[in-house]
Specification:
The protein is mainly β and 712 residues long. The strands form 8 sheets. The chain has an 8-stranded antiparallel β-sheet with strand order 18-19-20-21-29-26-25-24, with no helix packed on it. Strands 1, 4, 5, 7, 8 and 10 form a 6-stranded antiparallel β-sheet that branches. α2 runs parallel beside α3. The two termini are 38 Å apart.
């Protein structure tokens, strides 16, 4: 970074600490402030703070206050604060909070904590930026008064470094290069019915629809199961629907439907209900007091053994579409489905309901959803009711607005488990013939670097594997060749990197290593190519306008000190970087990490300036397009897994289920994912911790066999 020009002009650069003060409460914290050139960043010096908790425990006084000799005038309008911090916390189990104190132009005092919903404190190692969007603009001539360090463990001596502190205003425009592909660009969905479950065997359902008085009856019969859906449009909600399975009547979505922003549900008025083309169409007007909030549409269509429900609203006043609870059950049992996960905050994954021979599932069609995120159910039983799935969320953009609702829901009934599983309507991975008899090898280096003998010893280990008779190996690096791990990382640069660490031999040593492994041993070699992350330590690439934002305008968490790269810029970056790596090293596989580990909605960008802001769909489509490009350059990409089902077919993944101890139940993996991708291994924690718990290795190996995946 030294010599690079900061894109945001700092107010304080800590080159001169004359007159600066550090204050603590005696006996509670011991600390000192120093000017240091030990860990330089932008220029020659940084501020170093050494601290440790004292012998007296007082949480309210456990803080460090650092102040300049006099308040520093802020000469510009600002709505954001950026502070460069170097820590050594190595994860979320330890860390500290940083508060910035300033007085606005009108003399009002403010103390702002540099945190967000996804990064509540400083928990990285090495250099990175803590950035806070203030939610409003402050006028110039405010005054910076100092900063606080607090909420740290402090049971051992700790050091933090600080550099450029800036108060800045975000741009209203965006840099060029944004790109979001359409569904047709990625070849999905492969069926117009999206995630509608497929029927087993040659039987077909006979479906009829009729109206009796104010109710509509949909019947479906394939000779094995007889199903009737009864819809009485009274409330405008999913609550109006009932189902009869082989004579058993129940309510599939009690209290389900639209959840509106604000206090209390508004009143609904039916505008129109009609039976047309085998579907029932209803339109509704929603009022709170005398004000119309929005109009909604609901379209119900029986398809096979499912009820397809399409929902739309005219205005962004709905915060959630909920499945509610299945009610009127006799003896309900909930079965989790490994690999069909949601990874939603505060919720568990979906379940399939079993009740007296009836199987029932409910899910949102990802190919139609306009939502910000999907949530799972609580998998909760209460009396004669059960919650099996959550629904969809519509969260505010950075301008405070929400998107109108656009959803397609599937409610599914059958006596066969396979017929209530969602279809993954993605094209199959064309690399499956290559990988079906292969093994993946992960090269992960967490020891001292630079390690001059790294390539020599890495090749020797591959030679041993070849000597044991192992063929068709796909060997991927986990960013080890880009960064240093110990004794202290200076920050992570794991993506957008084209050069190998010079201290271990650089590009030439890497080129020789890859060529020998591929030409002499016949293995496929690959690097870490993750474009979901962007490091602030790459001044030529990093731009505050290219970081994904949450609803508050704060940055979404990437990994460690890396931030989440806006998905709208991923394709542009990948087209620049990957050809360079291919030209240098002729790689024949790659590891786009995180693509299939995080849920697509974990990449949702709420920045109102980007296309389709506040929706998970564009992020999902970008990830798929990136994986297609990855195949075109490196032939065989592998991603991290756990949340692989939405991207099955676009790449293979580690066959990680939702949790390492999850019971074996391979239905979804074998019937859906297996037809699209050759996943590998199983939950990685069973592998990583097998040295201390050998029984985990048995579980790792048995999981591969049960789920029918290739080896790792």
């Amino acid at each position: 970074m030294k010599g690079a020009a900061a894109k945001i002009k700092p107010l304080v650069d800590f080159e001169d600490l004359s007159g600066w003060s550090l204050t603590t409460y005696e006996g509670v914290v011991e600390a000192e402030l120093l000017r240091s050139n030990e860990d330089p960043l932008w220029d020659n010096y940084t501020a170093r703070v050494n601290f440790q908790a004292g012998e007296f425990h007082d949480p309210e006084k456990k803080m460090i206050i650092v102040r300049p000799p006099n308040p520093i005038m802020i000469p510009n309008d600002f709505d954001s604060i950026q502070f460069w911090v170097s820590a050594n916390f190595w994860g979320r189990s330890a860390g500290a909070q940083i508060d910035i104190e300033f007085e606005d132009a009108e003399g009002e005092l403010h103390c702002k904590t540099l945190k967000s919903a996804e990064q509540p404190f400083i928990f990285w190692s090495g250099w990175s930026t803590a950035d806070l969007h203030l939610g409003k603009a402050f006028k110039k001539n405010a005054r910076f008064l100092g900063f606080y360090i607090r909420d740290f463990e402090g049971n051992r001596p700790t050091t933090m470094f600080f550099d450029n502190l800036a108060f800045y205003k975000r741009s209203e425009s965006m840099p060029p290069g944004m790109e979001v592909p359409s569904w047709s660009d990625i070849g999905a969905p492969t069926s117009p019915d999206g995630m509608l479950p497929a029927l087993e065997g040659a039987n077909r359902c006979l479906i009829t629809v009729r109206q009796e008085a104010d109710a509509y009856y949909f019947t479906s019969n394939d000779g094995a199961d007889s199903i009737t859906w009864i819809y009485s449009p009274k409330t405008g909600q999913l609550h109006d629907l009932q189902a009869v399975f082989k004579g058993k009547r129940f309510q599939p979505c009690q209290d389900g439907g639209f959840v509106f922003v604000g206090d209390g549900q508004p009143a609904a008025r039916l505008i129109e209900a009609k039976l047309e083309g085998g579907s029932v169409h209803t339109r509704w007007s929603w009022h709170r007091a005398v004000q119309e909030l929005t109009r909604t549409e609901m379209k119900l269509t029986a398809k096979q053994k499912s009820m397809q429900i399409e929902l739309n609203s005219s205005e962004g006043v709905i915060e959630k579409v909920s499945f509610g609870r299945a009610a009127g059950l006799d003896n309900p049992i909930l079965q989790a489905v490994p690999y069909f996960v949601m990874r939603g905050k505060g919720s568990e994954d979906p379940a399939v309901l079993y009740d007296g021979g009836m199987l029932f599932s409910a899910f949102v069609d990802i190919y139609s959803s306009e939502a910000s995120a999907l949530t799972g159910g609580l998998r909760a039983l209460e009396g004669d009711t059960a919650k099996i799935n959550g629904g969809s969320l519509y969260l505010p953009l950075t301008n405070g607005r929400r998107n109108p609702v656009g959803e397609k829901l599937f409610l599914n009934l059958s006596s066969k488990f396979a017929e209530v599983l969602p279809t993954i309507a993605n094209p199959p991975n064309p690399t499956m013939p290559i990988t079906k008899n292969g093994l993946w090898v992960s090269k992960m280096w967490y020891d001292v670097m630079p390690y001059p003998k790294y390539f020599e010893e890495a090749y020797s280990s591959l030679e041993r594997l070849h000597g044991y008779g192992l063929r068709n190996l796909m060997v991927r690096d986990h960013g080890s060749l880009y960064r240093q791990y110990s004794p202290k990382r200076r920050g992570e640069s794991m993506s957008l990197v084209t050069d190998i660490e010079p201290a271990i031999g650089g590009d030439e040593a890497a080129r020789t290593y890859f060529a020998k492994a591929q030409n002499d041993l016949g293995y496929r070699m690959g690097l870490y190519t993750n474009f979901t992350l962007i490091s602030p330590l790459m001044p030529d690439e990093f731009d505050v306008d290219k970081v994904t934002q949450d609803s508050d305008g704060n940055w979404r968490y990437g990994s460690g000190g890396c931030k989440m790269y806006k998905h709208t810029y991923m394709l542009e970056a990948q087209r620049r970087i990957n050809p360079i790596l291919k030209e240098k090293f002729d790689l024949k596989c790659s590891y786009p990490d995180q693509y299939t580990c995080r849920a697509p909605w974990a990449f949702t960008d709420y920045d109102a300036r980007v296309p389709e802001a506040g929706k998970f769909s564009p992020a999902l489509r970008v990830l798929a397009a990136c994986l297609i490009l990855e195949r075109e350059v490196f032939e065989v990409p592998l991603s991290e897994g756990i949340m692989q089902w939405p991207l099955a077919g676009y790449c293979d993944s580690y066959a990680q289920p939702g949790s390492p101890g999850e019971a074996y139940f391979p239905e979804f993996q074998l019937r859906r994912i297996h037809n699209l991708s050759n996943d590998t291994g199983t939950h990685l924690s069973n592998f990583f911790f097998s040295n201390s718990k050998p029984e985990l290795l048995d579980r790792f190996l048995s999981g591969q066999i049960v789920n029918g995946v290739i080896g790792h």
